[in-house]
Amino acid sequence: MSLTGGNRNDVTQLLPLLDKIPAVAGVVGRPRRRPDMLFADRGYDHDKYRRLLRQRGIRPAIAERGQSHGTGLGTFRWVVERTISWLHGFRRLRIRWERRDDIHEAFLGLAVCLITHRHVQRLC
C-alpha cells in the first residue's frame, strides 16, 4: 500500500498500485502478478490509462463519461465505498493525525482486523 497526500488524484496512483500487487500462489507454475481485468469508475476514463493497461496485458473495464449507467460497474464500486465507510467509522482513520506513515498504517491494520472480527462473529 502507498500513502499519498489527501488531495492527490486517484488516477495518478493507478500504475504504482498495479506494480505493488504481490505474487498470488496456488496453481502449479509461475505465480500470477497481475489481474486479467481491472474495473474502474469514470474518474479513470482516459485513453492513456486504457492503453497502458492493455500494454500490461490487463483488460480495462472502465465506465465512460457521458454514458448512461447500466454497465454493472456500480456493483463493484459499492463494495469499495462500503469498505471505506467502515474504515471511516474509526475516528483516527477519518482524518489522518499521525505524521508518520508507519503509525497510520498500523491503525489501518488494526481497523481491518476489527472489521473482519465483527463479520466473523456474525457468521458464528
Automatic annotation (TrEMBL):
Pfam families xref list: DDE_Tnp_1
Superkingdom in the source lineage: Bacteria
GO biological process: DNA transposition
A GO molecular function held by the record: DNA binding
Domain Transposase IS4-like as annotated: residue spans: 2-114
PANTHER family for the chain: BLR1914 PROTEIN (PTHR30007:SF1), PHP DOMAIN PROTEIN (PTHR30007)
Protein name (Swiss-Prot/TrEMBL): Transposase
